[in-house]
Design brief:
With about 400 residues, the chain is of the alpha/beta class. About 40% of the residues lie in helices and about 15% in strands. The protein folds into three domains: about 100 residues; about 55 residues, Alpha-Beta Plaits (2-Layer Sandwich); about 200 residues, Rossmann fold. It is built from 17 helices and 13 strands. The strands form two sheets. Strands 5, 6, 7, 8, 9, 10, 11, 12 and 13 form a nine-stranded mixed beta sheet that branches. Strand 2 and strand 3 form a beta hairpin. It is globular.
Length: about 400
């Protein structure tokens, strides 16, 4: 493909991504993969170049553009070499005219920025859209961080995390045989901090209420030497089904899974009420803390969607609290930098539930900053995804 043809292809893919973002459809990665399957003539260099154009445009544009061309023009306005490819050549984009629309650039809309936690100032904005590094977590049941360092030299230890090892974002770590052998998992440092903050000890009973594919479940199993009983729950069958083979690869044998029916969670967990030493609620959220990895999430967030997330989080934190034994601990976590989803949610919970208290000293190293009843991790301050964590202790 010619460079101009690559630009036009990126514009066409951006058209689909923008429409999908507005309609709540497929994510950008899935759309890009499907677009490349439909263009089998594109070689590997073409695919890399097109992907770079698509994601550079998404990062530059703050909300869903009127068209893929408007998004690409916003990129071209800052890049004369890219602008020169709008030459009207065959298979390339038409010549740029001065009066055609450009997408608005920036981190996010002013209305969305106002929702950020007060700790997220303008100095944080640039860090929220740079490409993330690749963080690995050594699985203590199979390996150690020292062994990871030998396998992947050139990385660095992650502050406060015994098992964390950071590599450049383009590292193809999962292609290494050590991954298939269960020696490590790919897991952002923020998620590793969350699993460590829960503080599960050997022989305790733990519940991962929103386990998804089980990243934090496996981190807990690793940290406890496979000596804690863990129940991993979720309402998404496809995601939860990924946990069993992952656990087998990791050598984690004390994990059970429970697929919950939406709306029937309390009834299905009736036998677990008030029994767990530790419960983690990694609640569905805006994903605003993960914009480094999924920048198109900025295009998807609407007031109505945020309201639904906040309502679901309030239900989940109450359900999680009901599962905790007297004196036990609940960790509430969201990969969000929006105050309503973080400190606001915990403040409301503590108001509704007198007797519960917020812990103050559980994050390793110097990670996080105090944010109401919890802590906020951010890309600029902590070098990881944006994450709010709050560990709460049940009354005895």
């Amino acid at each position: 493909m010619t460079p101009a043809a690559r630009v036009q292809t990126a514009i066409e893919i951006l058209d689909v991504i923008a429409a999908s973002a507005r309609d709540g459809g497929a994510p950008a990665d899935a759309i890009f993969a499907e677009a490349m399957r439909a263009r089998r003539y594109a070689g590997s260099k073409d695919r890399r170049a097109i992907r770079g154009l698509v994601y550079d445009a998404i990062r530059r544009v703050r909300s869903a553009p009127v068209s893929g061309r408007a998004a690409m023009l916003a990129l071209a306005d800052a890049d004369p070499e890219l602008a020169a490819l709008f030459d009207g050549a065959s298979y390339g984009p038409a010549v740029i005219t001065a009066d055609e629309p450009r997408a608005e650039t920036g981190l996010a809309s002013a209305a969305l920025i106002k929702l950020f936690d007060p700790l997220v100032g303008t100095a944080e904005h640039d860090a929220m859209l740079v490409r993330a590094p690749l963080d690995l977590r050594a699985n203590r049941l199979r390996s150690s961080r020292d062994e990871l360092a030998a396998i992947f030299p050139g990385g660095e230890a992650i502050e406060g995390l015994t098992d964390g090892w950071r590599l450049p974002g383009e590292t193809a770590a999962v292609q290494h045989p050590a991954y298939a052998e269960g020696q490590f998992e790919v897991q952002d440092a923020a998620s590793q901090y969350a699993a460590a903050a829960l503080g599960v000890e050997a022989e305790q009973q733990a519940i991962d209420l929103c386990a998804g594919a089980g990243g934090k479940t496996l981190a807990i199993a690793s940290a406890t030497g496979d000596d804690a009983a863990i129940l991993a729950c979720d309402t998404n069958r496809a995601r939860l089904q990924q946990l069993a083979p992952r656990a087998q690869r990791a050598g984690a044998t004390r994990i059970e899974t429970l697929l919950l029916n939406p709306g029937q969670e309390s009834a299905m967990l009736a036998g677990q009420m008030g029994q767990a030493d530790r419960v983690i609620v990694d609640a569905p959220c805006s994903g605003s803390g993960t914009w480094r990895r999924s920048p198109e999430l900025r295009w998807r967030l609407t007031p109505a969607r945020l309201d639904r997330h906040v309502a679901d989080q309030a239900k989940l934190i109450e359900l999680g609290a009901a599962l905790v034994a007297p004196g036990g601990k609940l960790l509430y976590a969201v990969c969000s930098i929006i105050a309503r989803e973080g400190r606001g949610q915990v403040d409301d919970f503590l108001t509704r539930n007198p007797g519960w208290t917020a812990d103050t000293d559980y994050l390793p190293g110097a990670a996080g900053r105090a944010a109401g009843g919890g802590f906020l991790l951010t890309p600029g301050h902590d070098g990881c995804d944006g994450f709010f964590l709050a560990r709460l202790t049940a009354p005895c």
